[in-house]
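Regression test case RT-17, inverse folding.

Input:
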């Protein structure tokens, strides 16, 4: 029996993008989903447009942040399958029938990654391998150079919230999104729990969703500190740091070397003084945080 299917789009001050997403869903697949929900996380900017008939707009009474808002939004959905889109994502091909077939053919399927494309039509990232300690030991820039060799090779994938489909029973079964995360690494945590549950994960091969990515805008040092906080918590939660004390001091050693190099050679290497100051303050904050909190 074909499962009931809903689309859920999240919004916070992105009404133009959300409207684009909603319109694209109707253009591509109007007759193949049961309901489309928009969850607005108490945007201070009022919505002055209109949505097509059949759209349910849920307005949060207070701003919860992405993770809590997602849990509240999912609790409002009655359908068996939920296709989740970020507001800046939208379908460029039909997608509902493929998603429904995947879930119908496998009763233990819990999560599906939808393939995404960027501005030029080439692939953008909607899933990846499960995170491991190397990204903290080497730092994100150096790790990226050796990712193909150092990445997790278990075969498990981690699906990003920008474009995913979830069986509601699986979502409830693993407890939804962990509200200890804000917006960084919540999808890794969700996928890793799904991978360790009786539910499975797969990739929809045909559908294409536009999503450029790039993350929430903020100063580099603040985003970097957030990464070090959430990634350590994630890896500790899943027991992926063999000897935490050794890992801590190796990370502190690398950060100390980076800070010393920036202090001594920063003006030669980085001409933009604002950027240099941001990097220096960022490394200093990371050293203080990791020393005090990595256990």
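Golden output:
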């Amino acid at each position: 029996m074909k499962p009931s299917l809903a689309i859920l789009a999240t919004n916070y001050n992105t009404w133009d993008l959300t409207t684009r997403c909603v319109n694209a869903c109707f253009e591509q697949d109007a007759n193949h989903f049961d309901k489309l929900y928009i969850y607005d996380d108490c945007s201070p900017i009022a919505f002055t447009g209109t949505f097509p008939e059949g759209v349910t707009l849920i307005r949060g009474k207070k701003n919860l942040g992405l993770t809590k808002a997602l849990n509240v939004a999912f609790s409002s959905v009655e359908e068996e399958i939920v296709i989740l889109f970020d507001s800046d994502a939208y379908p460029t091909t039909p997608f509902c029938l493929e998603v429904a077939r995947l879930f119908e053919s496998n009763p233990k399927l819990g999560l599906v990654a939808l393939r995404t494309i960027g501005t030029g039509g080439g692939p953008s990232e909607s899933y990846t391998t499960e995170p491991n300690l190397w990204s903290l030991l080497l730092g994100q820039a150096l790790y990226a150079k050796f990712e193909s060799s150092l990445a997790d090779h278990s075969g498990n994938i981690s699906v990003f919230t920008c474009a995913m489909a979830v069986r509601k029973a699986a979502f409830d079964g693993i407890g939804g999104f962990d509200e200890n995360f804000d917006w960084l690494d919540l999808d890794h945590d969700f996928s890793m729990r799904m991978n360790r549950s009786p539910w499975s994960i797969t990739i929809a091969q045909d559908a294409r969703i536009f999503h450029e990515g790039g993350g929430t805008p903020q100063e580099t040092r603040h985003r970097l500190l957030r990464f070090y906080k959430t990634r350590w918590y994630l890896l500790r939660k899943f027991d992926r740091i063999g000897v935490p004390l050794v890992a801590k001091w190796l990370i502190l050693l690398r950060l100390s070397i980076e800070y010393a190099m920036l202090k001594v050679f920063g003006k030669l290497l980085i001409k933009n003084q604002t950027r240099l100051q941001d990097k220096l303050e960022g490394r200093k904050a990371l050293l203080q945080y990791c020393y005090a909190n990595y256990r």
